[in-house]
């Protein structure tokens, strides 16, 4: 009995030491987490930006600089995006998988395209109010360019990022969910037709075209009167 009592006491002391050690480790982790949180906002113990913060800040500046430089090259940007999508489709075809990822990418691009075709201010919300700009419906009205809900540059940027994310997902087997892909193709075609039909009806109802080629110029009547010499 005495031996059992000693064993019980030893186990209690060992458990208590283990708890104390874990508690100390937890407090150390909390302290380190707070220190790293202070570094993440750009301030270390000495009040200077951390190296990690400066690296990511510089990386973001370079990325934004390249985006700004690519803004006027619309055709080149879209050719690169189409090339990436072609490479992605070839990769999916060769791997014979990741159909769910491809379907999600198609739905994402469809939503971006609908936002690209839609006006920034929905005309149906302005039927009963005279506030804000409206789309011109007559030739003698003032010229108003079509303002999109999703601008072209943001449309391109989001579409390209979606392709890159989908391509990255093809390197992980966890995203390769087995599915009967013809059903996804039929469902996507049906969803595309229904969505575009609703968008075209919206354009016809409120009489707008989601493209602006420039201000239309109207010619006045030609002067056909005769001049008399004095």
Helix content: 55-70%
What would you call the structural class? Answer: mainly alpha
Radius of gyration over all CA atoms, rounded: 32 Å
Count of alpha/pi helices: 6
Number of strands: 0
What is the average of the pLDDT values? 76
What about the largest sheet? none
Low-pLDDT sequence parts? 2-6, 39-45
Distance from N terminus to C terminus (CA atoms, Å) equals 143 Å
Q: Beta-strand level of the residues, as a percent range?
A: under 5%
User: SSE order, as H and E?
Assistant: HHHHHH
- Shape verdict: extended
Task: Give structural notes.
- The structure is a single chain.
- This protein is mainly alpha-helical.
- The protein contains 6 helices and no strands.
- It starts with a helix and ends in a 24-residue tail after the last helix.
- The relative contact order is 0.09.
Features:
230 residues, transmembrane helix, 6 helices, Protein RER1, transmembrane, Rer1, 63% helix, extended, mainly alpha
Briefly, what is this?
By secondary structure, this protein is mainly alpha-helical. Helix content is 63%, strand content 0%.
Question: What is the topological layout?
Answer:
Layout: H1 2-40, H2 51-70, H3 74-95, H4 99-117, H5 152-169, H6 181-206
Helix pairs in contact: 3-5, 4-5, 4-6
